[in-house]
Amino acid sequence: xxxxxxxxxxxxxxxxxxxxxxxxxxxxxxxxxxxxxxxxxxxxxxxxxxxxxxxxxxxxxxxxxxxxxxxxxxxxxxxxxxxxxxxxxxxxxxxxxxxxxxxxxxxxxxxxxxxxxxxxxxxxxxxxxxxxxxxxxxxxxxxxxxxxxxxxxxxxxxxxxxxxxxxxxxxxxxxxxxxxxxxxxxxxxxxxxxxxxxxxxxxxxxxxxxxxxxxxxxx
Length: 219
Description:
Blueprint: E1 24-25, E2 32-33, H1 34-37, E3 42-47, H2 54-65, H3 67-72, E4 75-81, H4 85-99, E5 107-109, H5 114-118, E6 133-138, E7 144-150, H6 158-174, E8 188-189, H7 196-204, E9 208-211, E10 214-217
């Protein structure tokens, strides 16, 4: 029986399993609407505190350098801050000159703070005028699957974000979970048994068995 997509959160920060709030906003690639632009793919929506800042510059250029790795996984990148479209365009050109990398993904100019507010990207305790380093992983059904927040002082780890996407996609494809520090190619966790029959299957199946409730397998 097919499950229905959950409704969008009525207010506050979207939670895991919520429908990602839709929006229409100006970007460096023109006005776009999330639900249309997504085109049935995964989306990585991330915010940065401000244009022309050092940590953000290293993050945006690293996402750009590794855009092909996200593309291979069917993931579309889209950035956001509450700067103007003119600032975004100027910074994009500046980054290309200084880092020799072209920002190929759209950057949302959220001057009204409408998108940042809907996604809980503004944390007054951290800054009253800048978005925190938020990451939202949204699946092809526009469901929020993962949320990460970083403080203003710490840059993100793109390797970990890619690992997170790999884990989500592997779990979806194989009906499993992934253990601590898991990387693609390593064994995954078999979901815990829910019936006596499944307990017995864990004893005799082709698994790496630690106990009846924790078994690993290759996929």
